[in-house]
Task: inverse folding
């Protein structure tokens, strides 16, 4: 389905507006993570999720049918391409920031688990031959290496 130039222009403008807003929200989240204030990233989670789903849906539609925007003027399509490149760059920045937060959090959990395990008393039991065996203490913390 090929759109008229007016319809294609409107669609491209809508995509640019959507992409710019989403880029702005994701940049704010990345900045919050980089500033070690992940609680600040939660402010716009609902809007970011809604816009990300809309972006995913619309970009899939355009990929499946490039005729939706092909009638728009080349400078306008170039603006959309640049907005998309900026969005991709911000996503990469956010991924690095979230990865760093994840590593720190996992390190803290691991350190706490090791400290708890080290402070527990080691139990002593007798084996089949009557000698004492050092039993390892069970811990209540489960570490998931896939998280």
Result:
């Amino acid at each position: 389905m090929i759109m008229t130039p007016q319809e294609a222009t409107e669609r491209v403008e809508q995509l640019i507006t959507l992409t710019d807003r989403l880029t702005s929200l994701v940049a704010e989240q990345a900045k919050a993570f980089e500033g070690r204030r992940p609680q600040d990233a939660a402010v716009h989670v609902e809007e970011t999720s809604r816009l990300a789903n809309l972006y995913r849906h619309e970009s899939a539609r355009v990929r499946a049918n490039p005729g939706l925007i092909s009638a728009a003027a080349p400078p306008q399509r170039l603006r959309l391409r640049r907005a998309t490149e900026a969005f991709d760059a911000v996503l990469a920045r956010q991924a690095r920031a979230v990865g760093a937060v994840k590593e720190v959090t996992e390190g803290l959990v691991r350190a706490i688990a090791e400290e708890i395990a080290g402070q527990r008393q080691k139990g002593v039991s007798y084996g089949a031959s009557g000698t004492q065996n050092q039993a390892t203490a069970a811990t209540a913390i489960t570490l998931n290496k896939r998280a």
The radius of gyration is 26 Å.
